[in-house]
Amino acid sequence: MPASPKSTDPADPARTPLSTLAGVGARTAEKLAARGLLTLQDLWLQLPRRYEDRTRLAPIRGLQPGMPVQVEGVVEAVERGFRYRPSLRVALGDDSRATLVLRFFHFRATQVAQFRVGARVRCYGTPRPGQHGLEMVHPTYRLLGDEEQPGLGERLDPVYPQIEGVGAATMRRLIRQALERLPDDDTLELLPKAVLRERHLPSLRAALLTAHHPPPDADVAALLAGTHPAQRRLVLEELLAHHLSLRRQRITLQRHAAPAFAKAGALADRLRAALPFALTGAQQRVFDQLVRDLRRPVPMLRLVQGDVGSGKTVVAALAALLAVESGAQVALMAPTELLAEQHLASFRAWLEPLGVRVGWLAGKVAGKARTQARAAIADGTLQVVVGTHALMQEGVAFRNLGLVIVDEQHRFGVHQRLALRDKGTEGGRVPHQLVMTATPIPRTLAMTAYADLDVSAIDELPPGRAPVRTVALSAQRRPELIERIRGACAEGRQAYWVCTLIEEDNDKPGEAGSAAGSGARSEMVAQAAQGTFEALCAALPELRVGLVHGRMKAADKQHAMRRFKNGEIDLLVATTVIEVGVDVPNASLMIVENAERLGLSQLHQLRGRVGRGSAESSCVLLYQPPLSQTARQRLATLRETNDGFVIAEKDLELRGPGELLGTRQTGLAAFRVADLARDADLLPVVHGIGDRLLHKAPAVADRLIERWIGGAARYAGA
Ligand code: ADP
Ligand code: MG
Fold first, then answer.
1. CATH of 469-641, one of 3.30.360.10, 3.40.50.300, 2.130.10.10, 1.20.210.10
2. pLDDT-derived band of residue 127, with 50, 70 and 90 as boundaries?
3. Ligand 1 mutation target, pool 272, 283, 305, 314, most atoms within 8 A of CB
4. Which of the pair, 383 or 415, is modelled with greater confidence?
5. Quick one: which atom of ligand 1 is closest to the CA of 280?
6. Which whole number is the average pLDDT over 211-239?
7. CA of 434 to the centre of ligand 1 (A)
8. What is the C-alpha to C-alpha distance for residues 376 and 387, in angstroms, rounded to an integer?
9. What is the Cα–Cα distance from 296 to 142, expressed in whole angstroms?
10. Which residue among 277, 409, 614 has the greatest number of ligand 1 atoms within 8 angstroms of its CB, and so is best to mutate?
11. Superfamily (CATH) of domain 266-458
């Protein structure tokens, strides 16, 4: 492990501090440092997010929605509106005798004055369908003087990730300066030459120069698609660095000892005998695997994937009993209070009859109760503690933590897992870790995202589950559904109505607004849910209707969910916040609005909320016609299969891993250039080189990790 991955060193070009660049004062250096940019090398790897093609002017007549272009035209009309909020619309015409509307939501009076009828404007943006033909919302633009005819760009312009307080032009200038100090190939190159030759990939130096400043004759289409050999080369190295970093973490962790739970498993046998059902073959197989792991004095790091309803909880409980029988404590952590409560109920019902003391610690536990819970954890009175993030807080100390179980892994980051694990680090021993997720991840992705974990799968459902009947209906048939809900609830069943939002394309103020945009978005989803809630209350006056959305206070959300769970609500109108793990077996009908907008895995998760009891359940996917080809395939896949693994593979194929494995979800550092779906074919290469480097050239592996992950790798020091 490099002692200080981010140390600077003026003698080494890679580690030269940015303050040596012209124009970088203390303030700029600080802004850059806030984004992890400390050295020249950090700037070399600060790659363009995309490119803008200003090498040509596009005629307005031929513009395609969604395709960014540069356009030049003359202002034909200007209109200011205030209907919902201030807006400025500028109609631009060109020689192709077509009109494009430029639309602004944020603007100054001086801007309005600039756009006189007859003024010439050159702008760059992405046309989208608007009320009257195509529109560009917040394009970048400049007004041209009467005689002014600026030349066209000679190369693609790199667009870098925005950094607060550092303008785009400054960023481009700094990166250009940093690149002037790129060392020669031999100093820079870390990948085996044979690999590069074999795959026809350029050296790192050449790849960086091309990626930052594509030469005029570069393959523009490939660059825009991210498949240019220069980009592939960078992707390969980045994926390799991530892979190595995770493998390293695992190796480092497994140098520690863990408690070996070698007792015969009498408690687990007693639980099994007491269960009203027999384990499925898959549950048994995974449990046997856990027994083997837990008997060894090496920390277990195992991910158990199992489709919704496959019965992961009981397997976790059996594993917990192995730890308890050997005198160790167990922590079970879930991402929400509701899920944690559900686990608490199961664990109490299963373990307390065996004399095991099960406790509870969540954010809500406060004051004296919290002090007591912490004391009982610290002195070992509690053998199993169930809870939320609160378990990881400072001040929670276990007497003898031997096993950490984390449910719904993708909601927690790697670092959070490490934090809980650290609670057990005493006398050099670390606890075993069991991670459970209901989001099956295709094998190639699992090997990359979870290279630090062993993976096993509960790939079989308990017998007797009737598969959820899934139908796709056009939204025009919404009224029929009202009757269907009435019918189901009259029979004593419950139903979910899930609201999602149709994207409002007009409403994207470009890059700058994206952070604010997500807040606005969740507000809009909440409003849509509120509207649907009111409409359903009016249409179904005899039913008790509840509402849950992301804008509600956590306590109100939980209150509504709990009432639904207790049967005090018949119909729950919700946004996708209900997605994870909630178990209401009496719910037998789910309606999902705008289903064509959701990814397959997400729809599958939602659908998993019904079909958990004995009743025949259905899921109705409402869509807005016309359906795109991909949306049609997605809905068809859901109708055809209930198998989460099949669905995950298909999702990856149709949509890419972004939604399966976001940064937020896995806690993996975001990739700078790699895209796991696009670049999946490189993964076997990555694994091959990774093995070789770890065994034969660990120092090179260190340098790769330092280069690409730097500060983040500090978390690896276990
Ligand atoms: P998930 O894997 O989605 O977390 P759960 O652990 O919540 O699933 O299990 C879903 C339901 O199935 C629970 O009510 C559980 O008690 C039950 N269950 C688990 N294993 C079996 C089995 N082998 N046979 C029958 N029912 C089972
Ligand atoms: Mg579960």
1. 3.40.50.300
2. very high
3. 314
4. 383
5. 23
6. 91
7. 18
8. 14
9. 68
10. 277
11. P-loop containing nucleotide triphosphate hydrolases (3.40.50.300)
Worst-scoring range by mean pLDDT, 79-93, 320-334, 347-361, 430-444?
430-444
Measure 314 CA to ligand 2 centroid, in angstroms: 9
pLDDT-derived band at 463, boundaries 50, 70, 90: confident
Which atom of ligand 1 lies closest to the CA of 313? 6
Helix, strand, coil percentages, rounded to 5, for the chain: 45, 20, 40
Task: Indicate if the pLDDT at residue 3 is higher than 50.
Answer: no
Sequence letter at residue 588: S
Q: Judge if 56-144 and 266-458 fold alike in CATH terms.
A: no
Per-residue pLDDT at 598 exceeds 70: yes
pLDDT at 323 over 70: yes
Q: Which atom of ligand 1 sits closest to the CA of residue 306?
A: 2
pLDDT for the residue numbered 663: 33
298-317 burial, b if ≥16 CB within 10 A, otherwise e? bbbbbbbbbbbbbbbbbbbb
Is the distance from CB of 144 to CB of 121 less than 8 angstroms? yes
* Phi, psi dihedral angles at 65 (to 5 degrees): -60, 140
Structural domain boundaries of the chain?
Answer: 13-50+157-218, 56-144, 266-458, 469-641
Ligand 1 center to residue 587 CA distance, Å?
16
Q: Determine the distance separating the centroid of ligand 2 and the alpha carbon of 278, expressed in angstroms.
A: 18
> Does the CB atom of residue 608 touch ligand 1 within 6 A?
no
The response to whether residue 311 sits with its C-beta less than 6 Å from ligand 1 reads yes
* Contact present, 632 and 474 (Cβ < 8 Å): no
Contacts with 82 (C-beta within 8 Å, 6 or more apart), sequence order: none
pLDDT in tens, 246-261: 888 888 888 889 999 9
The residues whose Cβ lies within 5 A of ligand 2, an ion, are: 581
The ligand 1 atom at the shortest distance from the C-alpha of residue 583 is: 7
Instruction: Supply the pLDDT for residue 34.
Output: 86
pLDDT at 43: 93
**Atom of ligand 1 lying closest to residue 312 CA:** 2
- State if residue 90 touches ligand 1 by the CB under 6 angstroms criterion: no
d(CA 189, CA 233): 11
For residue 453, what pLDDT is reported?
80
CA of 443 to the centre of ligand 2 (A): 21
pLDDT at res. 506: 30
First to last CA, the chain: 10
Beta strands in 487-632 (DSSP E): 494-498, 545-548, 571-574, 587-592, 618-623
56 vs 480: CA distance, rounded Å: 53
- Tell me the H-state helices in 107-254: 109-114, 168-180, 185-188, 193-198, 204-212, 220-225, 229-254
- With a 6 Å cutoff on the Cβ, whether 315 touches ligand 1 is no
What are phi and psi for residue 630, nearest 5 degrees?
-65, -45
In the chain, % of residues over pLDDT 90: 45
- Give dist(CA 454, CA 472) in Å, integer: 37
d(CA 458, CA 302): 13
280 vs 10, higher pLDDT: 280
pLDDT of residue 549: 86
CATH class given for the domain over 56-144: mainly beta
Q: Confirm or reject: Cβ of 70 under 6 Å from ligand 1.
A: no
Contacts of 407 (CB under 8 A, 6+ apart): 312, 313, 316, 332, 333, 334, 335, 339, 343, 436, 581
Is 439's C-beta closer than 6 angstroms to any atom of ligand 1?
Answer: no
Beta strand 329-333 with 358-361: parallel, antiparallel or unpaired?
unpaired
